[in-house]
Each structure stands twice: as structure tokens, then as C-alpha cells.
Design brief:
This protein has ten helices and no strands. The protein is mostly helical and about 200 residues long. The chain has one domain: Hypothetical protein af1432 (Orthogonal Bundle), CATH 1.10.3210.10. The longest helix has 21 residues. The structure holds fe (ii) ion (2 copies). One fe (ii) ion (FE2) binds next to loops.
């Protein structure tokens, strides 16, 4: 199935796909909108491969970067008024746009499905526990066809065999990248890494 063959059944939202696309497109520059469509295409492929709901994964993908280009001040307001972790406000829009995006998915698009909302919430840093939908979005955002960073081929290869291996790879590489760039690390990112490494070591 490709993006354009998908029609929503109204299970997750009353919005039509066309209306969602039009609204999402208004929130961002054209290059980011194209990224969103590629994340959706990659999410659909992973959903089909791993047996996740294609409709839920498509919606999570289309809405995941809804807040990315919003002003940091507006994101901060939502973080504080909605009782999200206030520590996020010290780490910029990169950290805030996932949880704030989930807030818009619920309030603008009426999405109530917790797995879709969690997937959007966790798409940047991952989650200590992630659903199948969450893992699909987390990996699709990382390996969509427009990505060209060093290591993306390895991530794509891992995603062929195991979403968990690909997710761990992304979590580990993100931490290494932040350390190399001497950037501060949001503590939630460390918690996610700790849970994944403990599970990984526990398994071997
Ligand atoms: Fe994002
Ligand atoms: Fe993204």
C-alpha cells in the first residue's frame, strides 16, 4: 500500500486524510512537509512488515512534526499549562515538539488512541516502553528515504530484521552524537537509553 491508497475509516479521527494533509501542510515549510510524507510512506512499509495498524501508523506519521516549527514560546506555554515535564523547556523545540505535537493530535484532530498519542510524544527521544506503533514511527522518522546521515544504511538494514535492534541503534547513536557535539542531554533521553541498554544486556 502507498500513502495515496489510504483512506481513513473514522476509527481514530473524524478528519479525512485530505483535510489532515492540508492542515499539516500549513504548519511547516514545504521541505518538512515532504519529510512528513516520506515518514508516512516508511511507516506504512514497516506497519505492513511488522503487523501494526497501517491506519494508526499513517496518522501518527502525518501528525508527528505538527508542532516542530511552532515558536518555542508557544511550545513552552503548552508544556507548562498541560503539566508536562517542565525540564523540557530548557532543551528547546527539538525535545518539546513531540509531546506538544501529541497535545495537538488530541485537541485539534480529536485523536484519543493512546498508542498513537504516545508514538507522537516519544518520536524524538524514544520511550522507556514503546508500543509497536511507537517503534514504527521512531524508526520511520530515522530511516525515511530522504535521510542521508552516516549510519542510515545500517539503521535500514537493522529495521529489515528487528524494530527493537533498529530502535536501540537510534537511541545509542543519538546519545553518542550529542556527546560528540558537546550538547547537553535532556535527562529523559538518558532514562530511555538506560531502559533499552538494560533490556539489551539482560537478553544477551
Ligand atoms: Fe520530529
Ligand atoms: Fe520527523
Amino acid at each position: 500500500m502507498t500513502n495515496t491508497e489510504l483512506a481513513y475509516t473514522g476509527i481514530y479521527t473524524d478528519w479525512t486524510r485530505e483535510a489532515i494533509l492540508a492542515e499539516v501542510e500549513k504548519q511547516m515549510k514545504p521541505s518538512r512537509f515532504q519529510h512528513v510524507l516520506r515518514v508516512e510512506a516508511s511507516s506504512i512499509q514497516l506497519a505492513e512488515k511488522y503487523g501494526a495498524s497501517v491506519e494508526a501508523c499513517s496518522l501518527a506519521a502525518l501528525l508527528h512534526d505538527y508542532a516542530k516549527e511552532h515558536a518555542a514560546e508557544s511550545m513552552k506555554e503548552i508544556v507548562l499549562s498541560e503539566g508536562m515535564d517542565s525540564e523540557m523547556t530548557g532543551y528547546g523545540s527539538e525535545i518539546m515538539h513531540g509531546p506538544v505535537g501529541a497535545y495537538y493530535a488530541e485537541t485539534v484532530f480529536g485523536i484519543k488512541d493512546e498508542a498513537i498519542l504516545d508514538a507522537i510524544r516519544q518520536h524524538t527521544i524514544g520511550g522507556e516502553m514503546m508500543t509497536l506503533i511507537g517503534k514504527v514511527l521512531f524508526i520511520a522518522d530515522y530511516i525515511e528515504s530522504g535521510r542521508a546521515f552516516k549510519g542510515v544504511d545500517e539503521a535500514r538494514r537493522l529495521a529489515e530484521d528487528s524494530l527493537d535492534e533498529a530502535a536501540y541503534f537510534k537511541i545509542e547513536k543519538t546519545i553518542i552524537h550529542l556527546v560528540k557535539k558537546e550538547l547537553p542531554i535532556y535527562p529523559g533521553t538518558i532514562y530511555v537509553y538506560n531502559s533499552w541498554i538494560q533490556r539489551k544486556v539482560g537478553k544477551s
